[in-house]
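Many introductory courses stop at the sequence. We go one step further.
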Amino acid sequence: MEIWKPVKNLPYKMCFGCGGANEIGLKMEFESNGKQVRSFTHIPEHLAGWSNLAHGGVLATILDETMAWAAIYLERSYILTKKMSVEFLKPVFVGDKLETRGHIIQKISNKEVSVYAEIKNEQGTIVAKSDGIIALFTPESIRKFGFLEEDYLVDFERVVLNQ
């Protein structure tokens, strides 16, 4: 039996995918078995595309977020998505209960990993999948960009990277 444990995040984050403080975001929460991450989510009505179909960009965001958290948690690293490709396989409808899973395919170098994520519907059918390259950053190297506040970086390192 697999043991899944919650992946800690900062509750005040405004990230559209995983930020608990973003009122219109997806509020994705992750858990890990040490080899992969997963999240359970649904597409709210305000993120519809055609009629009652989920918007493809939102599905791509879910996949990106899952690949990102696979790298963040499994590599204990700051990350930025460098490249991703998405394949939409089946329609996804607003309100569908979805499970997404992601893992690292290969560590390319100390600065990059190859990742994979998939979204399954309630029937267990893969409805979308993605692979990509995630760039890895040390705390020192991410600070050089200057786009994240020091208080945020300190909290992220304390809560997320050191779990």
